[in-house]
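User: I'm curious what two different proteins look like when written out as structure tokens. Can you demonstrate?

Assistant: Sure. I'll show them one after the other, since each token string lines up with its own sequence. Here's the first protein:
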Amino acid sequence: MSKNFSQVAKALGKRGGVATKSKRDSDYYRRIGKLGLAKRYNKPASTDGGFFEGLTLLAVPVPPMLEKAIGYDGDARFVSFYWMPGGDEAYYDDGQRAGTGNWQGYLAFVQHPTVHPEIAHYQLGSSDSEAHHSLVLDRQERKLYVSSMKYARTFLAHQWPKSEPIHMTSEEWEALQTRIIAEMKQKQQDLDIGEIQRRIEEQYQLVEALQNWLNQFLPN
């Protein structure tokens, strides 16, 4: 393969003219499906009742360990990733839970030559600037989208069922905070040097596996 993914996606969709986005998307996923690296898709998800209307499907390979390599261990179907200058870290957000991710895994993915050309013109955040866009991963279909930060937050929040507001007295709220802080301190105390080293090694292996998986798409 001698072309980048943008060129390949366009070439696959052409029939004597400019390819439609729907044609590029469906042909792209059929192509990588034949390589045994993804499912086959008959139509882009953006046609699904407008549910994906504010998301742009990216023609990039999606590693099976992507979310874990970036530090997300939740169970939401959709989760977003971006970079924040405050703290200079990668972040994840699933609409209910947000936090600091793993910067090595994030950079290994977004800077890989099979991915970077497709996302370079989006503002996913950097050490010096706020993110205007975020990557949105569909963990069920193994597809990756990009969206504005504003739309991504709304989209992610809608994947969760609505719940009734919880009413607490100030005493109950203080007791809850005290319990959570105590549990966090206990978890930190329970981590010994061996466990910390194991987690570091596990993360290193995930990032290495991600890079090796993406390397399958590099030109020979």
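Here's a second, unrelated protein for contrast:
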Amino acid sequence: MTEDPAFAAATTEEQKSFLIQRAARFFKRYGTELEGLRNLLDVRLSQLALAYTLNNNLPRESVTVRSRVKSFESFLDKLAKKGWPHYYYLTEVAKDLVGARVICWFQDDCYGMLKCLQASSQFALRNDSLEDYIDSPKRSGYRSVAYPCRP
């Protein structure tokens, strides 16, 4: 990545302002597209959840999908936590601009939905990033299977 001369010559506060302005331009310009990606992700996951519940004779509401687009404020919080790193594309700082959560009533269904996602041609799952908090719960008691994916 080529260093932006305006960024390199700026003071720390000017750099911070520069990064905030870059993020604001991105969210203003691409907010609608991010929302479109969120909708697409939501539809595809909801279709898989419906198929899973039908195939397993479960009530439809036993597997639900929640999706979101990271807010501008949340992105700025992430920048601050990372020490205001220089970036050209927002995805260099935040890989989770669009995200979804599949919520299951039963733990076994978490693994069942994971198998559905793995078998689906609609998603490319990253094999190196499975986080199984059911098998090894967090200290807080939180349990999930986290699997970053790209539609």
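A detail about the second structure: The longest strand covers residues 63-69.
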